[in-house]
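fyi for ur records
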Amino acid sequence: MKKFIYQNSLSIVFLLLFAGAMIGQLVFGFDEYNNELIESGGQVITICDYLTTGHFFEATFENWESEFLQMSLFVWLTIFLKQKGSSESKGFDGPEEVDREPSAHKKDAPWPVKSGGVWLKIYQNSLTISLFLLFIISFILHLYGSLKDENTMNILKGKPTVSLGDYLVQTRFWFESFQNWQSEFLSVFAIVVLSIFLRQKGSSQSKPVDAPHSQTGE
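which gave:
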């Protein structure tokens, strides 16, 4: 068990941080939503009911959407684009290890590599594909939650509900999306540029402390 925790400590810590933040969102979001219901003349709901509300879906998936969009674009764009001096970029001195063609004869190669053909084609792009699919799923669930929450509030206020088509041309959903997208793109810009000049000893995301600013890649 100790060995397992040591070998997977990075993912375990982030999973625990995610769980803690998710619980915090649920607790405070539940209280906030009930306050909104009371102010709009509705009835207080249970926390189990809250998990099926548009409010919960919107708040959760509008953030996941932006994260997966950021990561999928970052993984894909680093294939083609470079930034001199950044630890997040490939270098300028020709092909790197990640660019080489996979070998089916390499020891412990994943099974898609050994199978070749279409499985290899999919597998060698599987990280970008998976992240982009997670973005699309989150985008759809965000849209579902946002529309559901909008119509819930409309019903409580005695207003007519809106259709999906009408909602997509309104501003709320796109405001929710772009306010998250811009922050994610800014964070990527920050790590790409700051890693040119700043260091963190021991981190795989930083160049060595004594590396020149012009050194590109880790």
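Residues 41 and 171 are 25 Å apart (CA to CA). thats all i got for now
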